[in-house]
Amino acid sequence: MSAHPPVLVDIKFNPEGVARVLKTAFADRGSINLADPADRARDLSVAEYALLWKPDADLFKRAPNLKVIFSGGAGVDHIIGMDGLPEIPIVRFVDRSLTTRMSEWVVMQCLMHLRGQYAHDISQRRREWAKLIAPEAAEVTVGVMGLGVLGQDAVAKLKVMGFNVVGWSRTRKQIDGVETFDARELDGFLARTDILVGLLPLTPDTTGFYDGGLFKKLRRDGALGRPIFINAGRGRSQVEADIVSAIRSGILGGASLDVFEVEPLASDSPLWELENVFITPHDAAVSEETALFRHVETQIARFERGEPLQFVIDRAAGY
């Protein structure tokens, strides 16, 4: 019997992958995997650490002795509002692979809109040789909202591609060579932005944030003609009805969406068929299980050595 209590795992994605990696993860203490029928009735009062993604509603009642909660992803909005949430540290998942994948997706979407990929796709299917003259990246300003680990990596990689990049966050961040804006300067930031990239966490302030009023404040006289909205942050930060109407009315020239108010996106959503809209099924940056468990093991080891945990969220801010 291990001297260390097992890690409680309640993750509602990729059960096969989680089960496979758990065979070798937490070797010194083992785990209780609530996705495994054999573990569902286990006594959870022994658990001191929990790794969670959209956990069962009664989890904290069943596991009253937790010392640290680990999120199974970069976001923590699926935990913050839960009943009985104990006053203990909540650690979010930060991983080089997750960050890199997100930046790949953001750069790809910006380039597809820059180079008119949607129009090329249509021409290809019609077997039409229809050349397009696209602006250069340097003529286009990408405004990145959310300047945490993911946002700052996206900013750096968009700059490498030659885009003019500006950044916005609630409180100002200093980034070398990038003009940044804070909460009071939102309108000035939007007025500069041709392609808006949303990487904000979900908080009460950001729920329904990307709406028709915001889209109207984006730059209208830029090299792309009409502004583009790209969101890989949180689906409930966007008002999908407003995205649809903004594209239909020409306020927006297109969109790339990886997240949605309700997932999976309903098959009758008008978003599927709108012109110049790219849809991906919340897979821009999927948590890779091996890296996730390694991250948790590292943080538990730090905690037990008496060192400070990394990536602890600020509860008041919600991220």
From TrEMBL:
<dbReference type="GO" id="GO:0016618">
    <property type="term" value="F:hydroxypyruvate reductase [NAD(P)H] activity"/>
</dbReference>
<dbReference type="GO" id="GO:0051287">
    <property type="term" value="F:NAD binding"/>
</dbReference>
<dbReference type="GO" id="GO:0030267">
    <property type="term" value="F:glyoxylate reductase (NADPH) activity"/>
</dbReference>
<protein>
    <submittedName>
        <fullName>Bifunctional glyoxylate/hydroxypyruvate reductase A 1</fullName>
        <ecNumber>1.1.1.79</ecNumber>
        <ecNumber>1.1.1.81</ecNumber>
    </submittedName>
</protein>
<keyword id="KW-0520">NAD</keyword>
<dbReference type="InterPro" id="IPR006140">
    <property type="entry name" value="D-isomer_DH_NAD-bd"/>
</dbReference>
<dbReference type="Pfam" id="PF02826">
    <property type="entry name" value="2-Hacid_dh_C"/>
</dbReference>
<keyword id="KW-0560">Oxidoreductase</keyword>
<feature type="domain" description="D-isomer specific 2-hydroxyacid dehydrogenase NAD-binding">
    <location>
        <begin position="108"/>
        <end position="282"/>
    </location>
</feature>
<dbReference type="InterPro" id="IPR036291">
    <property type="entry name" value="NAD(P)-bd_dom_sf"/>
</dbReference>
